[in-house]
């Protein structure tokens, strides 16, 4: 099963964790299967007057613990299988950090780089129309993911609100603050990644301030993580995007790299102060921490065998294949799993949703404190399970907590009808 699909990886991770928790067979079957997935086709009038039809999905994986919650991704590799895995991971993530949500995910098969802003807006509004009967503040609350952002969330909120006849800010999170978004949401996932990176270094008896770090992906999550780790004193020696990586063994000047990317259409290529290397070289660089923050399945068995990092912090969802994860366990390279490492985003999304429900807004310090408290508590619970149950790796420990909580919710609610 070397480089199996994200869904196969997730199901295999669930089976491994099940060895350490007592879950009824029938409930485990329910946990393995999404509640529903909607496929929609989206006709969009392009700028040249032609009509193009895009395929898109919304998968609602599990709602035993609360309304569905999960991002929307625009990418050419989106598939039904991928959104199902991502929706499952959202379920385990919200359970692990103990938010009153289930898990969902959506995606549109498209290459946003080839679309104008107007075409992306039309696509977003048509997608919202396509899924509007299955979303809502108490039903399913989307958020940003790869290639979507606060601008996209504003269009979704507006389209949904037009159908309702009144403003419904709490139908999405990750909105611009001017229309009900919370301060701190854009940085939340990267902030969470930087917090757990510091935690794992402390646990291993080292210090993040002395660490060399490589980060794959320089989008929302990767760039904020780079900035915050830089602020914590770490040496960010390599960062990358889809076009390749840049490397400086003395540490990149992250502020300068961010300014360069801003002036270069969001791309890293051509950044002269650093050496250009490939994404593969970044993943196998001799660093203290490797932080994949792009897409899934980038840490394959081959990469895991050649990896020189001492610890991996999974900012992306599903960056390590199931078999590669086993190689890292054998090589005793600790991995902070995605369902904890990138949970900062959904934690602050929850805080945004709560603020919208109360029609009240908190200052950013309060949001960041709450984020840190919830994340460090979940980190400690994962470590406690890892040590007390003598589980071989942190991912399995995290899954035992998430599966147990979700199974308990199913057990308490029973089976209808
Ligand atoms: P983004 O679109 O802002 O950035 C993605 C980055 O990955 C870009 O730099 C892009 O060039 C790079 N990339 C894409 N394909 C690549 C490839 N094949 N090789 C190397 N780099 C590649 O997306 P994001 O919001 O930063 O999300 C990144 C990851 O974090 C995803 O796995 C996402 O599911 C996960 N995540 C995001 C959030 C969030 O709040 N945005 C929350 C939790 C998890």
Structure overview:
- This protein is an alpha/beta fold and about 425 residues long.
- Among the domains are: about 35-170, Leucine Dehydrogenase, chain A, domain 1 (Rossmann fold); about 185-340, Rossmann fold.
- Helix content is about 45%, strand content about 15%.
- It has helices at about 5-20, 25-30, 80-95, 115-130, 150-165, 185-205, 220-230, 255-265, 280-285, 300-305, 320-330, 340, 345-360, 365-390, 395-415, and strands spanning about 35-45, 50-60, 70-75, 105-110, 140-145, 210-215, 235-240, 245, 275, 290, 310-315, 335.
- The strands form two sheets. It has a seven-stranded mixed beta sheet. It has a five-stranded mixed beta sheet with strand order 1-2-4-3-5.
- A hairpin with a 2-residue loop joins strand 7 (about 235-240) and strand 8 (about 245).
- The longest helix has 25 residues, at about 365-390.
- The protein is globular and about 55 Å long.
- Nicotinamide-adenine-dinucleotide (NAD) binds near residues 147, 217, 218 and 295.
């Amino acid at each position: 099963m070397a480089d199996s699909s994200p869904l196969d990886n997730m199901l295999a991770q669930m089976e491994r964790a099940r060895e350490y928790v007592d879950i009824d067979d029938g409930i485990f079957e329910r946990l393995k299967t999404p509640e529903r997935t909607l496929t929609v086709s989206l006709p969009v009038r392009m700028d040249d007057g032609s009509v193009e039809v895009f395929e898109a999905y919304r998968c609602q994986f599990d709602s035993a613990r609360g309304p569905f919650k999960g991002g929307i991704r625009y990418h050419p590799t989106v598939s039904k299988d991928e959104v199902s895995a991502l929706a499952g991971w959202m379920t385990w993530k919200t359970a692990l950090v103990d938010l009153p949500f289930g898990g969902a995910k959506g995606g549109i098969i498209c290459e946003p780089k080839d679309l104008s802003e107007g075409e992306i807006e039309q696509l977003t509004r048509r997608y919202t129309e396509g899924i509007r009967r299955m979303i809502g503040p108490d039903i399913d609350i989307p958020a940003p993911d790869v290639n979507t952002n606060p601008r996209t969330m504003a269009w979704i909120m507006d389209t949904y609100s037009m159908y309702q006849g009144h403003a419904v800010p709490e139908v999405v999170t990750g909105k611009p603050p001017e229309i009900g978004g919370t301060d701190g949401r854009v940085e939340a996932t990267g902030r969470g990644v930087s917090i757990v990176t510091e935690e794992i270094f402390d646990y291993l008896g080292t210090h993040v301030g002395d660490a060399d770090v490589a980060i794959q992906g320089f989008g929302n999550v990767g760039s904020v993580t780079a900035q915050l780790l830089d602020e914590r004193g770490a040496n960010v020696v390599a960062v990358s995007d889809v076009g390749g990586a840049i490397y400086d063994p003395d540490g990149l000047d992250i502020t300068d790299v961010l300014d360069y990317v801003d002036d270069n259409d969001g791309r890293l290529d051509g950044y002269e102060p650093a050496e250009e290397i490939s994404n593969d070289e970044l993943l196998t660089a001799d660093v203290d921490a490797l932080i994949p923050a792009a897409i899934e399945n980038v840490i394959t068995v081959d990469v895991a065998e050649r990896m020189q990092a001492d610890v991996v912090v999974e900012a992306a969802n599903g960056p390590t294949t199931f078999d590669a994860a086993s190689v890292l366990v054998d090589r005793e390279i600790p991995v902070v799993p995605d369902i904890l490492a990138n949970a900062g985003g959904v934690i602050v999304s929850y805080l945004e949703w709560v603020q919208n429900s109360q029609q009240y807004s908190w200052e950013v310090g309060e949001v960041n404190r709450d984020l840190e408290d919830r994340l460090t508590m979940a980190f400690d619970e994962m470590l406690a399970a890892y040590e007390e149950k003598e589980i071989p790796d942190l991912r399995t420990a995290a899954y035992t907590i998430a599966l147990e909580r979700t199974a308990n919710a199913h057990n308490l609610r029973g089976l209808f009808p």
